[in-house]
Amino acid sequence: MTWIDLGPLEAVPVRGARKVKSVHGCVALFRTGADTVHALDDRCPHKGGPLSEGIVYGQAVTCPLHNWVFDLNTGVAQGADEGAVATYPCRVEDGRILIDASRLTRDSAA
Amino acid sequence: MQKLIVIGAGMATGRALEHLFEADPGAYEVTLFNAEPRGNYNRIMLSPVLSGEKTYAEIVTHDDAWYAEHGVTCRFGERIAGIDRDAKTATTEGGDVLPYDKLLIGTGSNPFMIPLPGHDLDGVIAYRDLDDTERMIEAGATPGARAVVIGGGLLGLEAAAGLRLRGMEVTVVHIAPHLMERQLDESAGFLLRRALVHRGIDIRCSANSKEILGDGGKVKALLLDDGTELPCDLLVMAVGIRPNVKLASEAGLAVGRGIHVDDQMVTSDADVLAVGECVEHDGALFGLVAPLYDQAKVVAATLLGQEAAFVQKDLSTKLKVTGCDLFSAGDFAEGEGREDIVFRDPGRGVYRRLVIEGDRVVGAVMYGDTADSNWFFGLIRDKTDISEMRDTLVFGPAYQGGAPVDPLAAVAALPPEAEICGCNGVCKGTIVSAIEGGAVDLGGVRGATKASASCGTCTGLVEQLIAATTGAEVETRTAICGCSDLSHEDVRRLIKSRGLKSMPAVWQELGWSTPDGCHVCRPALNFYLLADWPLDYADDPQSRFINERKHANIQKDGTFSVVPRMWGGITTPDELRAIADAADKYAVPTVKVTGGQRIDLLGVKGEDLPSIWADLNEAGLVSGHAYSKGLRTVKTCVGTDHCRFGTQDSTGLGIKLEKVLWGSWTPHKLKLAVSGCPRNCAEATCKDIGIVCVESGYQVGIGGAAGMDVKETERLIDVASEEEAIAVVMAVTQLYRENAKYLDRIYKWVGKVGLDWVRERIADPVERAALVERFELSQSIYRKDPWAEHAAKKAETYRPVADLTLEAAE
């Protein structure tokens, strides 16, 4: 694993998200009410909606375009909708957000 | 005219008088005595008053005007000391002797106080009338106050839940092994207990009270016989009631446990009738409202010399604790030849048990989902043969005969004689004929049939019946979302009555089932909180839909649209140049003129938003709030400035209105227009609020729409001056903000509260001024440009937090 420091936990609002640019397109970096962090592809499998712009609650986010709901831990769509987005390991250490970038940086693109 | 003296102004005598006046208004001259210093109110609704969900004014059944209209002489706060049956007179406490031709006794019941040592201490009360309720509300006002409720029956639990909602620490002491043992079986009792414990109520079953401990004459604690001491500042005894027969028995009437009456509600004296909780009929006593109303009907008929007979019926029970749906009917004791059908869904807390004897349902207990309760009650009452549907019976009416599952199917499947309103004994057929007769809304049905006018638990069913009968879409009071069983209306009321000023306070105090809500409830709560507590509550961007969080409209490709405000649709060459420059600089793919008289820049990238805003700000342009549930635009025509027909300065008024209203949040979007003459070029009559100028002044209409529904505005009020027009618009906007359900446009809200109600508020100068003042207070926070603020302080948050395309893996 290749852990990269993305910045302080405070850079992401509680029950909110920020985008991280990667070679595969944007990754949505979420912070929940319980201060856990999660990284998911920022592209809803339904119509490509930016999940990072959704409303975050519990361990879930709702896509802003058509209200698909995704589990932040698994990336799997909830309820009647079928689909999933990729997730990337990330964690908080000493107040900094770390992400496993082995699948996200230039060298891994190949 | 004959003289009728009525002793007791309760629900039963009140209903009897209604029937009497309806059938023959001139038959009797009525004098009404009441020991309580007030008239008839809906006693069943004391629990919602206690919990803060209703006010006393809302539960008054007969007001002064009603008594006056029917010529009733009211002597409230006065007791009758004695009855002389030979002389046919009643004597008041004060010594007045009044003759009667007929006497109606409705003395009700007294709460039973267990004669424990200390039961006469200050702070030990019953739960019976408004005075008790007020005592309880008062006790709840002290922070950290504690209450003990003795009795885990219907009344005790409603008291406990209400006190808890008032912020008290509450313990319920119940002698039986499970709650409401007369109505519920053990499993449903357990679910109810769990729900109440979840609300922070301490429940102690199989507990025996030994002594009430006091300190200086005031209650201090309840001592149980196992030695446990439960400290309390208030002790409510809710263990049962006893018919109040003192007066009748002293007058020599035949009395058992209650006052004996025959099927015509006549006592042992042919000129004395009795009704309500004080009577005993065929060995039975009555505590629920439905049989009392049946009795009242018979009383009125008997007084008018008509034939009628009271017949006892099966009864059902519902608990009025918001969020605890519970129903029981019939007999559900286990026994020889009885079989159970049980359905459980522990995850949702749903429990349903049917007791079958032969091919009949004899009892039903439901918890958690009581939507089909009336159907099951009908099966019990009508002794329906259920052998054909036994396989699917427990799933309810929607599953019989393969009918599709549809919220309306259950109610549509009910036979005409199915009882919908248990309190008033109104069946489906009666309601349907009222609807077909023109009562197409809840108020109309209540007026015509009384259905849902007492305890209100059947309101949803009545609304569904209206929908099923008229085919119209009727919005029912359903839960706000999956996180809570409370409706929007309940939540709004509780936020105000309990002073909840933050999102976590709402989640905690109102028992949200999720840690931090969901995408449905959070935006609604955020609006309610900021509308009700503009100075105390800080707007939560994370609870807003993206458009309102980023002050731009998200497009299907994830880009945004930017719409600068053009006050009243007026712009300048400089502004247009700035817009053109911005469109060039940020490579905006589409520039469009909107229906609200301004220009939309579509396809702006999210991370460019703060800089395009800063550029537009520099030219004096601010956010147009084209994205908000709030004020959008005030569309205008050119009015007297240029138009040969214009009667007033419609453009000027539009600009003034927009400057006053901009930045305000409302339950849904708010679009205005001002037309300079009745030719209405600004299309003001299909706006949420529309003003049409005429020679004599301004016609203000509300409730228009031109979206999924197309509606013409209804005239609210005509005013002479521009200042008044502005004040009216501010006041109506504030009234809408304070009262409407989130995501109801003005026309939907007006459809619920009625235009007359809105007009009364706005026409009253005092209320109008107060509304304007509250609106101004809120605007002192919100009347500002969010673009400038975000461009200056939050620009960083619009950019990616990191760019890994530039990083190389190690």
Describe it for me?
- The complex is a heterodimer of chains A (about 110) and B (about 800).
- Chain A contains no helices and ten strands.
- In chain A, the strands form three sheets. Chain A has a four-stranded antiparallel sheet with strand order 2-3-4-8, with no helix packed on it.
- Chain A is an all-beta fold.
- In chain B, strands 3-2-1-7-19 form a five-stranded parallel sheet, with no helix packed on it. In chain B, strands 9-16-10-11-12 form a five-stranded parallel sheet. A five-stranded antiparallel sheet of chain B has the order 21-22-25-24-23.
- In chain B, helix 11 crosses helix 13, helix 19 (about 610-620) packs across helix 26 (about 785-795) and helix 22 packs across helix 25 (about 765-780).
- Chains A and B meet through strand 1, strand 2, strand 3 and strand 5 of A and strand 41 of B.
- Strand 2 of chain A pairs parallel with strand 41 of chain B.
Tags for this entry?
heterodimer; A: 110 residues; mainly beta; three-stranded antiparallel sheet; 0% helix; globular; B: 810 residues; alpha/beta; five-stranded parallel sheet; 26 helices; 41 strands
Q: What's the total count of β strands of chain A?
A: 10
Counting H and I runs of at least 4 residues, what is the number of helices of chain B?
Answer: 26
Provide the spatial order of strands within the biggest beta sheet of chain A: 2-3-4-8
Cα end-to-end separation of chain A = 17 Å
Mean pLDDT of chain A: 90
Fraction in helix of chain A: under 10%
